[in-house]
Amino acid sequence: MLYETKNSRVLITCAALAVVLGFAGARVQAGRRDVRPGPPGLVESAFIPPPVALSPASRAAADSLVRARVRAGAFPGAALAIGNRGAIQHVAVYGRTTWDDDAPEVTPHRTRYDLASLTKVVATTAAVMALVEDGRLELDAPVRQYVPEFSGGDKDRVTVRQLLTHSGGVRAGAADIADVPPARVRRYLLSRPLALEPGKDVLYSDLGFVILWEVAERAAGEPLPRYLQRRVWGPLGMTHTAMGVPPGCADCAPTLHLSEADEPYTGGSFDEVARRLDGVAGNAGAFSTLRDLATFAALIANEGRLEDVRVFNTRTVRGFTRPQPGVGTRALGWEVYCREGKVPDHRACEVVYAFGHTGVTGTSIWIDPVSRTWVVLLTNRTYLPKMEVDMQRFRRRVYDAVIAGVPPS
Description:
- By secondary structure, the chain is of the alpha+beta class.
- 30% of the residues lie in helices and 16% in strands.
- It has helices at 15-22, 42-47, 56-72, 119-133, 160-164, 185-191, 206-220, 224-236, 272-276, 290-301, 314-321, 391-403, and strands at 26-29, 32-35, 77-84, 87-95, 113-114, 242-243, 256-258, 263-265, 286-288, 305-306, 309-310, 335-338, 352-359, 363-367, 373-379.
- Strand 10 (305-306) and strand 11 (309-310) form a beta hairpin.
- It is globular and about 55 Å long.
- The two termini are 26 Å apart.
């Protein structure tokens, strides 16, 4: 179980001392950063506030919302985790993986969910964050510097930062890949022309993250799933998180029902592009459990450190989760909720209410940037739903219920 830090206060007048002494937890050699376990030092402990306890009433309210949706038939099962900074304070599971009475019950440690677009932050953005720290990737470098095949015309001006903020002009759909042989899909997507001029507007693009995955893999110099296991997932003990889970996964909650075979579709990927890329796509394809996702959320909420492991520097977490200028509700790979509601793409949030991401299969992570309270919700709402549910609105209601229990600062 994750830790709860003791409340210690040390007056430090030199901020540079915190950077030099407090935030060292890794060894960097020739562009390789090895995550090494070690407790926070005296300086770092002083700069990391302890977790705050959320009210039992708010946790019960969130629990009641999810339980009611499962009983109503919005999804056959669900998993919910709530915490503050590095502490998990509430874990609940509901229902089963399918509607059958003999289907496996949802468990926090074994039931793996198709994360869909939540892959964009848990895998692709996490890899980019690590690569930037390792000095292997530059946010404002052109994409063609890492992937020469992505070039020609306006594509020469697309940067890594623009792919992260969906402002690179990359087209949004991939309906034209149906007849492309699987071995050529990635190369074909890299060759497609842009839909918009780079930097002109925001166009949410799954294909942009397929390209970003290729950029990160080239920068890493090794298969990106292996890099993630070594650099992020492994040090955190996220043993049930993986890309490319094959169809027929016994522990996976299904996302579809195959009518011809009259059986659930488990493993593989709900996303068509990810399926054509064997589940290793960057836009989708990751599978994980509630336990692993709660660990990841706690890491980000605690600004890069969890227990005796520092995976990211604090400045990296803050930089990637902060809204970027001129792209509305986009941070670097992450999305933001604005307290004032939707904002035009040429404006940023006045007040950030949460940052996180969602997945079409019914998954989400949302984190309060002020109190560092977080909520992880996993469902397989695409599997034979018995009732329609506005998933965006529902996820926000669950988050609102939790945030209502944050003690006044």
